[in-house]
Design the sequence.
């Protein structure tokens, strides 16, 4: 399935996007978590919001 992980700036604006091909929401979350670069990420499956990953959560 096709997912997108949007990179967000400090004001919550989209600054970039990663295309993800995943079997389900859990796999999309795991793949998105590997993309952390100091910014929050919003993961979407079409028009459905899956999760927002906060960069502070990654330890």
Sequence:
């Amino acid at each position: 399935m096709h997912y997108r992980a949007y990179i967000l700036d400090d004001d919550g604006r989209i600054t970039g996007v990663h295309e993800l091909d995943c079997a389900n929401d859990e796999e999309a979350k795991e793949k998105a978590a590997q993309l952390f670069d100091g910014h929050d990420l919003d993961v979407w499956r079409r028009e459905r919001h899956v999760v927002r990953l906060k960069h502070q959560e990654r330890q």
